[in-house]
Description:
The protein has 139 residues and is mainly beta. It has one helix at 2-16; strands at 29-39, 42-51, 64-67, 72-73, 77-81, 90-97, 106-110, 113-118, 131-134.
Amino acid sequence: xxxxxxxxxxxxxxxxxxxxxxxxxxxxxxxxxxxxxxxxxxxxxxxxxxxxxxxxxxxxxxxxxxxxxxxxxxxxxxxxxxxxxxxxxxxxxxxxxxxxxxxxxxxxxxxxxxxxxxxxxxxxxxxxxxxxxxxxxxx
Length: 139
């Protein structure tokens, strides 16, 4: 019974923990999850964001994914979610990355802030066409 309770507590903690405990409030949003998909020798990285309550995304400011080497990558695709597309509640940004881009930490530059997408070094071990969903920046 104790093992079952411990497993349930761990599952609940894993499910309910935030992607980042202290996201930059200037970003006006927080990362919910990141989906990494391998496409031959490259990777698609989809970053799912949820806007902070009462905040909106400034469409006039550029969005970029910054690699550990300082390279800034523009999104290949952007999807907005919510009932009012002028003030979306959720946003998905999709980036096309080379393997060298995934070897270091990644940060999303959005609005006036910076959000940690990936805080570790190394490339996820994925076969061609395989994907993995990350719910924390430690990957």
